[in-house]
Amino acid sequence: MRWTAAALLLVALFLDAHAEPLTEFWHWFEANSERLASNPEGPETVEDMDYWLGRIHQGLSYQIRSAGRKKELILSADGEMRLFPIVDQLARQAPRTKGWKITALRRKQRLLEPVTVGEATIDPAQVFFDLYDDGARFGVVLYVPRPNDDHLDDYRIAAIRLMSQAVGEREIGNWIGFVDLDRHGVRDMEFSRPFAEFEHVFKSLRK
Question: What is the pTM of this model?
Answer without folding.
Answer: 0.88
